[in-house]
Specification:
Helices cover 43% and strands 14% of the residues. By secondary structure, it is of the alpha/beta class. Bound molecules: iron/sulfur cluster (SF4).
Length: 389
């Protein structure tokens, strides 16, 4: 696809009945098969507005930056996963939190909110491929092997926010902390004050980029643990010599960007600045002009001078929104092909309307609830992150 086509891609019931009628326990885990309003229903926007108005301050809608515009228009707060988790934790008034994001984000919101607040994920199929790349039993096997090699007590687990509650819980139980793409450097600095090695879960790219680019750790000291191979696909000597043991996980959206994309856009658009997320591969991050979290990407574009030229390597919904918000800046998508987060995009207006209207009718659907023990240890890891200097 040529650059001009890339450019084209871018421009392109009342609350009383609620209190009386909801059967919380029996409705958990309900799916929406066959119950959705048709996506073509021209009244969807009006229906979403009516349901939101009926729920009033008892409901809050959180929208991740990678969501579709049709959903984000109803969000009370927009943000990245960390900002939205904080927003959920800070709000004690809303009894129902509609999380328009993916499963691990809704779990974090449930962990950080009070007992009487319910978190709803409008489509239970909205998962995260990266979070799914680290299963608890695999991480426990890895930790056991580190123990057999005598290095588990010199190793601290750090898990990215984009992980399941079970992995956050494992991390909290073993002395570690959660991190986000904006505080990964601080989390690793904190970890290396306490331990000689870090087991970084589940995004190898964020772990490697932060260790090498931000902390100056030698690339040779970063090894990748492959959970599908014996001994993680490593020799004992490699494990013993490593400073960073990176989990073999990646984001299916940011992992697509390549060095070739950067070279192509630089050749096609002289003067362009390449702005990418640290979940991108090391070869992309080292070739970029600016690297930053979702919030930093938004801030960078907001503060950029009119007429400046940018190629952005992050989720396409956000890049399109930035292009539409700042028509005075020349904004391009870094990849040659469409690159939405397919799981995040599962949350669409029909699912949101279905979840809102169900609640108005007195049915709580698709509640995300983390069990007490898992939540307790995961909260420790999250609170360690919040207390980072
Ligand atoms: S963009 Fe990547 S990390 Fe984020 S939810 Fe989608 S697959 Fe997961």
């Amino acid at each position: 696809m040529d650059m001009s086509l890339q450019k084209l891609l871018l421009l392109g019931a009342d609350s009383g009945s609620l209190a009386r009628g909801i059967d919380l326990a029996s409705e958990r885990g309900v799916s929406c098969d066959g119950q959705l309003p048709a996506a073509s229903d021209p009244d969807l926007v009006a229906r979403a507005l009516a349901a939101k108005t009926a729920l009033g301050s008892r409901a809050m809608i959180l929208g991740h930056h990678y969501q579709r515009d049709e959903v984000i228009q109803f969000a009370d707060i927009t943000g990245d996963s960390f900002k939205l988790a904080q927003a959920a934790a800070d709000n004690r008034e809303a009894e129902f939190i509609f999380f328009c994001g993916v499963h691990f984000m809704a779990e974090s919101a449930d962990i950080l909110t009070s007992e009487n607040q319910k978190v709803i994920l409008p489509d239970l199929a909205a998962g995260c491929s990266m979070a799914d790349m680290a299963a608890l039993h695999q991480v426990k096997d890895c930790w056991k092997r580190l123990g057999e090699l005598g290095v588990a007590d010199q190793t601290l687990p750090i898990t990215y926010m984009n992980s399941t509650a079970a992995i956050k819980s494992f991390t909290g139980k073993n002395g570690g902390a959660v991190c986000t793409s904006s505080n990964a450097k601080r989390a690793l600095t904190w970890a290396f004050e306490k331990a000689e090695k870090v087991l970084f879960l589940p995004d190898q790219h964020l772990g490697r980029n932060t260790a090498v680019q931000e902390l100056g750790i030698d690339l040779d000291k970063c090894v990748v643990w492959n959970p599908w191979k014996p001994n993680g696909g490593l020799t004992d000597a490699q494990i013993l010599d490593a400073t960073m043991i990176l989990w073999r996980g990646h984001c299916s959206v940011h992992g697509r960007f390549s060095r070739e994309n950067v070279d192509t856009v630089r050749a096609a658009l002289p003067g362009v600045q390449v702005l990418v997320h640290p979940e991108c591969k090391h070869e992309v991050v080292t070739a970029a002009d600016v690297v930053g979290s979702t919030e930093k990407i938004i801030q960078t574009i907001a503060e950029a001078p009119a007429g400046s030229k940018w190629a952005i390597g992050t989720e396409l919904n956000l890049v399109q929104r930035l292009a539409n918000t700042y028509p005075d800046k020349d904004i391009h998508f870094l990849d040659k092909t469409i690159c939405y987060c397919s799981t995040m995009n599962r949350i669409d207006l029909p699912h949101l309307v279905w979840a809102l209207e169900s609640l108005v009718a007195g049915r709580l659907v698709n509640q995300i609830s983390v069990d007490t023990q898992t939540a307790s240890n995961a909260r420790v890891a999250l609170e360690r992150m919040l207390a980072l200097p």
